[in-house]
Design brief:
binds flavin-adenine dinucleotide; FAD/NAD(P)-binding domain; alpha+beta; 20 strands
Length: about 500
């Protein structure tokens, strides 16, 4: 895992840098306007968010609701027309969209804090209270229950367009931000470390008032104290700011669609196959969503075959192919006094393997997305900060990608508001480096865990299969380990819990 070693050592160097270069404080400012100085013309903004996907919208919503940032002048730009700010999606009649996200309780907390969760509650949202993971060898399995950690749910599966709709409805409720869309950003200038900048020779057109300049495809120019790059995995902002990144293709595509199942359920099921994991997520009633990560060739076959053949293939992959289901003998033995003696206390430790529901219909179009692991070595440069997929992309096997992005949004808002409180310039790199340090320490360990899973499950070799089964068994039976894993996956524990990492 050399990429992780390099990235972590860079993260630690960056943190040392941010300690050795304290933020230059002006006299204590009383208002945001005083702290940031006046904006002179209509094309000047405190913050320009490039990319109005879930993470860009989350940053905008966070800025709108934090009392120290809500008077900032903000623009949000997206190349696509934005989703209508409506919370009238039908709960039961319409078929769910195949693009969904499993949201962790931490993300739900953020959405509650910015008061956008209420719109998701009006719309379709599917809680899940258990997870079951197993592999094709049939040697072992792991079940997790919300009850193991004293909770009612492990998370919620929500359509991406419902999440977007909730965030934009909230932004519109507050009359916050100029929404500029559809408009594509062609260039961002005045934001990279460059020889001329280091020598202090600044191009006046690029850096009016020392601001970054954002150029749109229609020729319009905006000037910003801070540009937030929320423009996804192929980020233009990252490129224009000269922020280098690491990328490894998984040579897998994730096929998604909406399915009908033989019964309703509230479990997230995942079976690891030699070609990649297949996951079925509850979507309410008898709707489910599938995320099937497989070879690009099989993804094409699965997308183009007839509906009946596809449904048969899904059932085969989940149930019928390879060996029998894992045995439930050990958990049954532990249900009695032996379990209590060994300290096996989490309720799911004693639960037998449960067969997933049969798939009866495919209800939507099938789409697929190439998968890769990517990470920007640095998330910030003068007047620029990266969030979400622009900074990092992960395999969807644990449904963490956008949750990491919501973590970025939460952290960015708290660091910007802390900066405003002490009169710092929000585009000042020494302030932004505090965000980078905090988020690398949150994101890199999760990325390493997910990449490790992806690798461990893509090998079909006797001793490795046995080691994997042992690891599954340990995760199933050892209650403290189980609770740690659940809390980590729910975004509720990690190294960020330690006080020394708090801003
Ligand atoms: C199959 C699959 C399943 C997934 N499931 C989950 C899950 O269950 N849970 C989870 O947490 N994550 C999941 N993810 C990951 C999640 O979808 C991403 O992490 C998330 O969409 C990233 O959001 P973002 O806002 O950072 O970027 P994007 O969603 O990529 O948004 C970027 C936005 O920027 C705009 N843009 C780009 N370039 C420009 C430009 N030059 N000018 C103007 N606008 C621009 C685009 O139009 C877009 O709206 C999944 C991913 C896949 C592929």
């Amino acid at each position: 895992m050399s990429w992780l070693r390099t990235a972590t050592s860079k993260a630690l160097k960056a943190s040392a840098r941010s300690y050795s270069q304290p933020i230059l404080l002006r006299a204590m400012a009383t208002t945001t306007q005083q702290a940031q100085g006046r904006l002179n013309t209509k094309d000047e903004f405190d913050v320009v968010i490039i990319g109005g996907g879930m993470v860009g919208a989350a940053v905008c919503c966070g800025l709108a609701t934090n009392k120290l940032t809500n008077s900032l002048r903000v623009a949000i730009i997206d190349g696509k027309p934005l989703t209508e700010g409506s919370h009238t999606l039908h709960k039961t009649s319409a078929i769910p969209d195949p693009r969904v996200s499993a949201l962790t309780p931490s993300t739900v907390n953020f959405l509650e804090e910015v008061d956008a969760w209420k719109y998701i509650l009006y719309s379709r949202h599917a809680p899940f209270d258990s997870m079951q993971v197993w592999d094709y060898t049939g040697l072992s399995y792991t079940r997790y229950n919300a009850a193991d950690v004293g909770k009612h749910v492990l998370g919620y599966v929500v359509e991406n367009n419902v999440i977007l709709s909730a965030l934009y409805t909230r932004i519109q409720d507050l009359g916050f931000a100029s929404l500029i869309c559809p408009a594509t950003v062609k260039a961002v200038k005045g934001c990279a470390y460059s020889p001329s900048k280091l020598a202090g020779e600044e191009n006046e057109e690029e850096t009016r008032n020392g601001f970054a300049q954002v150029e749109l495809d229609d020729g319009q120019r905006l000037h910003a104290r801070l540009v937030v790059g929320a423009d996804g995995a192929s980020s233009k902002v990252r490129e224009m700011a000269g922020l280098k990144s690491f990328k490894r293709e998984y040579k897998q595509e994730a096929l998604v669609c909406t399915l009908e199942t033989s019964r309703s359920h509230s479990t997230a099921w995942q079976r690891f196959l030699p070609t990649g994991p297949i996951a079925i997520l509850p979507m309410g009633a008898t709707f489910s969503n599938i995320v099937w990560s497989t070879s690009p060739l099989q993804a094409i076959e699965l997308k183009t075959m007839g509906e009946e053949d596809f449904v048969a293939k899904v059932n085969e992959a989940l149930v019928d192919s390879f060996g029998p289901f894992p045995s439930s003998r050990i958990p049954q033995l532990l249900a009695g006094p032996l379990g209590s003696f060994l300290g096996v206390t989490a309720s799911s430790c004693k639960e037998p393997f449960e067969a997933p529901p049969y798939i009866t219909k495919c209800l939507s179009k099938r789409a697929s997305f190439p998968l890769s692991l990517a990470h920007a070595y640095n998330y910030v440069s003068p007047r620029v900060v990266l969030v979400g997929d622009a900074a990092h992309t992960v395999h969807p096997l644990a449904g963490q990608g956008v949750n990491l992005g919501f973590g970025d949004a939460t952290s960015l808002i708290s660091i910007l508001s802390a900066g405003i409180e002490v009169g710092a310039d929000i585009g000042e790199v020494s302030l932004l480096e505090r965000y980078e340090k905090k988020q690398k320490l949150a994101n890199l360990p999760m990325m390493a865990v997910l990449d490790g899973f992806q690798k461990a499950f893509s090998m079909d070799f006797g001793p490795i299969n046995a080691a994997r089964a042992a690891a599954f068994g340990a995760a199933q039976l050892f209650s403290p380990l189980k609770r740690q894993i659940i809390s980590y996956a729910m975004g509720e524990s990690g190294i960020l819990d330690s006080k020394i990492f708090q801003v």
